[in-house]
Please model this.
Amino acid sequence: MATELELKYGCNPNQKPARVFMREGELPIQVLNGKPGYINFLDALNGWQLVKELKEATGLPAATSFKHVSPAGAAVGLPLSDTLRKIYFTGDRELSPLACAYARARGADRMSSFGDWIALSDTCDLSTAKLIQHEVSDGIIAPGYTPEALEVLKSKRKGGYNIVQIDPAYEPAPVERKDVFGITFEQGRNNLKINPELLSNLVTQNKELPQSALVDLMVALITLKYTQSNSVCYVKDGQAIGVGAGQQSRIHCTRLAGNKADIWWLRQHPKVLALPFRPDLSRPNRDNAIDVYISDQWEDVLGEDVWAETFTAHPQPLTPEEKQAWLEKLDGVALGSDAFFPFGDNIERARRSGVRYVAQPGGSIRDQQVIDTCDKYGIVMAFTGIRLFHH
Model:
């Protein structure tokens, strides 16, 4: 392995020279194909940490879909329902647990995952590679690749798809540094282990926390650990369904992530599943059309000529009443927050997206107000006592 890799440029084309390197020892990564860039490596290394920790915490293979140093989706390898198979475009092929994890991670927020960087906790198998083959993606990092999977991935982007392999035994130094405006910052790495013990302090009247919700809350907290703050994460059935990253206000995080969770659920509405798409329509255009169709102004956004290029017949609208009735069926969602909720309005918004389980640090002067709001709706909330800011 090399001690450094020269890059074409940094975050932007004018930022030269650029490289990744080790002050001591060799890089724990190998580029098997393509020429990853500066942001690619930031996504790769953050994503790898996320999936490695998800695997350690749950015992399940994990995947994440990263964009601009925050996850658009993250998930563990639980089986897919027929509905999820349809909205994730997996077809009826047999899927490995790792492929299920990636389908869930990529399918959570398909608009944001366009051109993603993928991280996998386990050796990439052929089943997973075949899913990745048909998605628009910049690259992938994994601890290994089967020969068949590597052959499939190398065929992407006219042979230029970025493929990185990382040594799964690599452990970074306990102290990390970065330079900002010529000044060096130094801190201890965030080595906090997220496990069920962090969720033992249940502060609400309702203290029934099933195993499935425990796993979902760990998925939420580990996802948040590698999401640009402020952030909250909605999770259901082992996958993030809404991530609200990099917002200055906590309620804006909760609204943004909640809206994404709502869209994920609305994609499963029978009317959306029955949309008469043209068979030659690409996946990105299909995703865009669904996003517009779900919006309140769908008939005003695109003209008849565009709809004719999208559908074989003019679809019937999804009315506000139908959307509301469908959203009321979303339930059993877990919500994690990287810092405390300062007001109960966050719980009010989260409840509208089916949240029944919450994990947050606690420590606000208004903690009791937040607890009371949870009690009002029978929501279970744990105080973890730990903050998960990431910058």
Remarks:
- The radius of gyration is 21 Å.
